[in-house]
Design brief:
The strands form two sheets. This protein has a six-stranded antiparallel sheet. The protein is globular, with a radius of gyration of 20 Å. With about 300 residues, it is of the alpha+beta class. The protein is about 45% helix and about 20% strand.
Length: about 300
């Protein structure tokens, strides 16, 4: 008779790297498109993880084009305007998760681990059986169901693990990310922004950091992010402000000063233009949502 001896699992480097991430999931859903398909153009303020279940989808972000087949996954970082285009005459289904990380330092670690400071495609990371399980889990997610929040986190954690493993085990051909000089410049600028106070954000400061002209910086951002450097700075500043509204008790005036606005009114106007609600209403909505979440 053979006895079973459990094999203790010591923490490995990838597990330790993933353990440091704290995700704030905003939305988890499946999307199904029936012919005739319509293009969907979006610019998000959170990270977006997309996985294709069936059909074929082209994602265009700036000058970059990613062709997704079933089992592929795509990570799109915040503030990038992109278009999703179904390219078959059959039904197409894909799932997606919108999420944030706890702070800028964690975002930098996350994008470094997955090489996704710019949109990145991971080919064939999800097997057919795994896609079926994921779809059943996403279909079953309900805000009223006890434990749904935890279940969503388990699912996202597992999917991020698969992406990270694919980078370790697969060939370079299995991962597609922009790596030319312009893309590297944009990555460096985004990393720099995570380390400087928001009130100091400016196109001139970015040019000084990168040692490039404003026209070259504009060209690189327009190609990689599909927006100007100034537009990106505005979105990034508002994104950080949104996080502070949720996590701190600072007044609207204090946040306006922190993020480089001349007054609370100017900050509120910019915030409302992008999020369609005032900063005060956004903060109250997040608090109400937190109080409604089941234990």
């Amino acid at each position: 008779m053979q006895s079973f001896r459990p094999n203790p699992l010591a923490p490995d480097s990838l597990s330790r790297a993933l353990d440091q991430f704290s995700f704030h999931i905003r939305h988890f859903a499946l999307y199904r498109s029936i012919p005739p398909h319509q293009d969907k153009t979006t610019v998000g303020v959170q990270f977006k993880l997309v996985f294709l279940v069936c059909g074929r989808v082209d994602f265009e972000a700036g000058s970059r084009r990613f062709v997704m087949n079933p089992g592929d996954a795509l990570v799109i970082p915040p503030f990038i305007r992109y278009t999703a285009r179904c390219t078959t005459d059959e039904e197409t289904e894909y799932g997606y998760a919108y999420f944030d990380l706890a702070d800028s330092a964690m975002e930098e670690e996350f994008t470094s681990l997955l090489d996704c400071a710019l949109p990145a495609l991971y080919r064939g990371v999800l097997a057919e059986a795994e896609l079926g399980t994921i779809c059943r889990m996403v279909h079953g997610l309900s805000p009223e169901e006890p434990g749904a929040h935890r279940e969503a986190h388990i699912l996202l954690d597992w999917m991020v693990l698969q992406l990270a493993r694919s980078l370790l085990h697969s060939s370079q051909a299995a991962h597609t990310a922009a790596n030319d000089a312009g893309a590297q410049l944009v990555r460096q600028c985004i990393g720099h922004l995570r380390r400087v106070p928001p009130r100091e954000f400016s196109v001139a400061e970015l040019c000084e950091f990168a040692h490039v002209t404003q026209s070259y910086l504009y060209k690189c951002f327009q190609r990689e992010m599909n927006c100007s450097p100034q537009k990106f700075l505005t979105l990034y500043r508002l994104k950080l402000a949104e996080r502070e509204l949720c996590d701190s008790s600072a007044t609207i005036q204090e946040l306006a000063e922190q993020f480089g606005y001349t007054s609370a009114g100017a900050f509120s106007q910019a915030f409302k233009q992008h999020f369609s609600v005032s900063p005060a209403a956004w903060r109250q909505g997040q608090r109400d949502r937190t109080h409604r979440e089941p234990d």
